[in-house]
Design a protein that fits this description.
The complex is a heterodimer of chains A (about 240) and B (about 100). By secondary structure, chain A is an all-alpha fold. Helix content of chain A is about 75%, strand content about 0%. The longest helix of chain A is centred in the first third of the chain and has 28 residues. Chain A is globular. By secondary structure, chain B is mainly alpha-helical. Chain B is built from five helices and two strands. Chain B is flat and about 50 Å long. The chains are: A mainly alpha (about 240), B mainly alpha (about 100). The interface between A and B is large, with 100 and 72 residues.
């Protein structure tokens, strides 16, 4: 068996595995589009407005927040402000996805729209760059397709649908995320990072609007990463000078 | 209403696009490289924790915990991705049937 053929067989199998996972993720999270569609219409948006939110906003947390504010009697601009606050985490995701994809022009414009929790998670969960790119596109497109189809069905058939929670679909995303980072828990620093991320996010849930605790956790992890990189690179940046800042 | 919808959609897209537009030389420093190793782990852990134990703006303990614990066992037993997520959904669904919120 030559190393070259071994590698390409590996790549092909890897690609198939990544696409299969992306389809499973698309089906499971896309099913929430049913709930969103039903909720959008129930909160007073038109069918077209509900569907446009899924097509053009395409970031679940922000969409649920938008219709939540409208349904609760808030103004459209208050709803937009809340949606933007929650959408800010996609900027953080772009920092890891951007350099990985290295796309320009209309491909970049398309890729940007697909930057969400799940596509980012699935791509940063792959350690090899070519597979990480496949994971991003496959997951993003799969969720985009299922999410928008489900929104339309949900908005049309509001009220006559099973609750995704009854099917246990709300446990799918966190289980998938743990699957993705578990192989990276190979050092004390990695365990510490995971612990800090989880604890900071949970501690801030009661204090901040939803979506922001995850951003705060990312900031805490960033501080930790910079502190450990200084300790690793030079004595002039010892823990003492870090504490002072 | 349309104004709110359009502002929110355009704004959310701009936020996504901005993150992808940070120049490469900013991303090349040693601190940022250490960050790119650790951030995925921290971010995934934060997302997993929040989506298991939080609901909007409060902590909440419900059937998701059962699903996630079963998933962790399945991951330790080296089950493939599809099996892990299917077991998570099935066990959370069963926990709800048995009366968990």
């Amino acid at each position: 068996m030559s190393p070259a053929s071994e590698l390409s067989v590996d790549d092909e199998a890897g690609r198939r595995r990544v696409v299969r996972n992306a389809l499973a993720m698309g089906l499971a999270t896309g099913a929430y589009g049913l709930t969103f569609g039903a909720l959008g219409v129930a909160s007073g948006l038109s069918l077209a407005q509900t569907c446009i939110l899924s097509l053009a906003m395409f970031t679940g947390g922000s969409q649920f927040a938008f219709v939540g504010v409208i349904g609760g009697g808030g103004t459209p601009l208050a709803a937009a402000a809340t949606a933007l606050l929650l959408g800010a985490r996609n900027t953080v995701y772009g920092l890891s996805v951007g350099p990985l994809l290295r796309v320009r022009g209309w491909r970049k414009a398309g890729a940007a729209q697909l930057v969400i929790d799940e596509s980012t998670a699935m791509s940063i969960g792959e350690t090899r760059k070519p597979l990480a790119r496949v994971a991003f596109w496959a997951t993003g497109l799969s969720i985009f397709a299922f999410w928008n189809l489900a929104t339309l069905i949900g908005a049309v058939a509001a009220g006559a649908l099973p609750d995704p929670k009854a099917l246990g679909l709300d446990a799918v995303a966190p289980a998938a995320f743990i699957f993705l980072f578990a192989p990276r828990l190979t050092s004390r620093t990695a365990w510490l990072t995971a612990g800090v991320g989880a604890v900071v996010a949970l501690a801030l849930v009661p204090l901040l609007p939803s979506g922001l605790p995850v951003i705060a956790a990312a900031v805490a992890v960033a501080v930790l990463a910079i502190a450990t990189s200084r300790r690793a690179t030079g004595p002039d940046h010892s823990a003492g000078s870090g504490d002072a800042s | 209403m349309w104004l709110g919808v359009i502002v929110a959609c355009v704004g959310c897209y701009a936020l996504k696009y901005a993150g992808m537009s940070v120049p490469q030389r900013v991303l090349d420093s040693p601190a940022v490289r250490q960050l790119s190793l650790l951030l995925p782990v921290g971010l995934l852990a934060a997302l997993a924790a929040a989506q298991t134990l939080a609901d909007g703006e409060r902590l909440m303990f419900d059937a998701r915990i059962v699903g996630v614990l079963v998933a962790i066992i399945a991951i330790r037993l080296k089950c493939p991705f599809i099996v892990v997520v299917a077991l998570a959904a099935a066990s959370a669904a069963v926990a709800r049937l048995l009366g968990m919120p």
